[in-house]
Amino acid sequence: MFIEDNRPNNMEHLMSLYQQLRATSTLKAPIFMPTVIFVLLVTVFCSVFPEQAQITLNTVKQSIFTHFSWFYILAGSIFFLFLIFLCGSRLGDIRLGADNDEPEFSFTSWIAMLFAAGMGIGLMYFGVAEPVLHYVKPVQENLTEAERMKEAMMTTFYHWGIHAWAIYAVIALALAYFGFRYKLPLTVRSGFYPLLKNNLSGFWGHLIDIVALCSTIFGLTTTLGYGAMQVNAGFNNLGLIDSNSFVVLAVIMIVSMMLAVISAISGVGKGVKILSETNLVLGGLLLIFVIIAGPTLWLFSGLTENLGYYFSSLLELSFRTFAYEPEHQSWLSGWTILYWSWWASWAPFVGMFIAKISKGRTIREFILGVLFVPSLFNILWMTSFGGSAIWIDQQTHGALAAISDNTEALLFGFFDQLPFGQIASVIALLVISIFFITSADSGIFVLNNMASQGSGKAPKWQSVFWGALLAVLGLSLLYSGGLASLQSMTLIIALPFMAIMLVLCFGLWKGLMVDTQYSSKKFTQGSVLWTGENWKERLEKIVNPTDRKDIRRFLNQIARPAFNDLVKEFLEHGLNAQMNFIDGKNPKIEFEVVNENLRNFLYGIRLQSRQLSDLVVDDDNLPNLEESKIYEPITYFFDGREGYDVQYMTQEELIVDVLKQYERFMNLAMDKSHNLMTADVENMAE
């Protein structure tokens, strides 16, 4: 009887809790539900069938390597070239925000934050490991010692340099442009506004955000997996732990995610900011320590040569797929393709941070800053850590090469070869741990923002949910196949997202073109000449779009008398002037001055139709717009210049406009530097 009485109460309590969660949630079901279902399916599959999951992931990964490696390389290069094109074109002058918006942060602060964006777990994990691995196992055979070192550093720069930041910059630029210029939410779908327009909130918009969200989840999980493995390696190096088991990794992952969730829900954003700044300082101190403790002069000399080698080889590297060297394609798949997919999965995460700090910057300033500031810092870091590691490996007859199979331990093995190595290892472990927590904290914020379509501050329970989801997903993938499974899922989900990013470039370009045309649109010549007289008649013309009859009336009642008066006056001055009227479906009228050595001066007006925007036609508050076209009297000239609408001009104003154009023609004709344009070429040919 007791159970029967309480079951309904328990059910009511659960329903009440569900209603409360639903009422406070900012999550958008069309984005959130498919994403969570997909992630949970992957989690269950990897946890319940680890061996089968590993086989399946490897099969899919190998298929992508075989059929789509070229696509990753081509897409990464397109992003880079697209940004360089924008930077060098007039579109680079467009501001990320209103035209009068000032940058939110000073240039120095902005550069410092971009500098900070280049820091992360990846640099700590790969700063020593990647150059050493490329040096120990170079892609090309039969290289000299010097060539192996140069190739190792150049390849590392390629993976961590401009191309990586070009992938980030494409997303960041789209978020900043459409977010601050069009006032749209800071979500990936907003970049498709020029293509989807009113359908932005429909199926395709949801699908774009779902793929972006899934990609970010797996990218974050991969990074956290790297962090957990390196924290474990650090504890082993310091003698605090003597195990590499899954249980140890699970404990590290769970504890770190708990700290990240506590940070996310406590609202101590200032504390996280202090931690991040502290980490930046500690990372900087480690960098300085390595430069001083390592072969200092050799590093600076190597940095200079490495930079030259990298930039001179950049174009060739950008399109390298080893199509004619199939024996190297497995290397390409295991390094470059995995990197490009990793960068793509992190692009919404890093892009949102960069977008938020870049309001008020011009596109040119944005691109130059985002492409080069973090890239140059990464190159300095890799040169200092990787170059020193290779130099030490040579001096110690392969001490680091001997442990190169244990990638996560290479950083601590490197510090063991330097003075005060234990202290440096402790600081490095602290830096990695803080990066782990702050990255997870920031990741939770970004996931909330993406799943909520950029709306409002998320309730605390959502942060707990995302933290738990990241931890469970990371553990299930580590359980099924370790780091390889994390990399495989990132690679798989990044493929459709790279395709989305390519379309995003087209949407961004289209938006920028419309922007520059809109901003450069000037008043009609009739409006420029208008003195304010007859304003009621002018208003009537504005609100009642003209049809063919109106244009014929204008040509007969305004243009014809004006041109007749001009012909009479020009003839009195000894000039051979005439008027031509061509009737028909699209009538036109011309005032022409016939010359002997010069081209004939021609000022014509013709009827032209223009398609109206659907937004205008369908607007019930504009009752006089019933057709999808309007008709206008547009000028044309002897030299093919673009004409303009003259329908608002009076007879006197039209005469003035013709004389202005004739004066311009005569001024150009008197200047011999314009002879190519003003000479009568047709008569010369005869």
* CATH topology grouping of the largest domain: Amino acid/polyamine transporter I
Count of distinct strands:
4
Give the oligomeric state of the chains in this entry, treating copies of one chain as homo and distinct chains as hetero. Answer: single chain
Instruction: Describe the main β-sheet briefly.
Output: 4 strands, antiparallel
Q: What would you call the structural class?
A: mainly alpha
The helix count comes to: 26
Q: What percentage of amino acids are in beta strands?
A: under 5%
Family: Belongs to the BCCT transporter (TC 2.A.15) family.
GO cellular component, one term: plasma membrane
Main location: membrane
Subcellular location: Cell membrane
Characterise the protein shown here.
With 686 residues, this protein is mostly helical. The chain has 2 domains: 30-515, Amino acid/polyamine transporter I (Up-down Bundle); 528-685, no CATH class. Helices cover 70% and strands 5% of the residues. The protein has helices spanning 2-24, 29-48, 50-88, 107-117, 121-136, 145-160, 162-180, 193-196, 203-238, 246-266, 269-293, 296-312, 314-318, 329-356, 363-395, 410-416, 421-451, 460-481, 483-520, 525-529, 535-543, 548-572, 614-617, 651-670, 675-678, 681-685, and strands at 576-582, 588-594, 601-611, 629-637. It has a 4-stranded antiparallel β-sheet with strand order 1-2-3-4. Strand 1 (576-582) and strand 2 (588-594) form a beta hairpin. Helix 3 crosses helix 7 (162-180) and helix 3 (50-88) crosses helix 15. The mean pLDDT is 84. Its main location: membrane. Keywords: Cell membrane, Membrane, Transmembrane, Transmembrane helix, Transport.
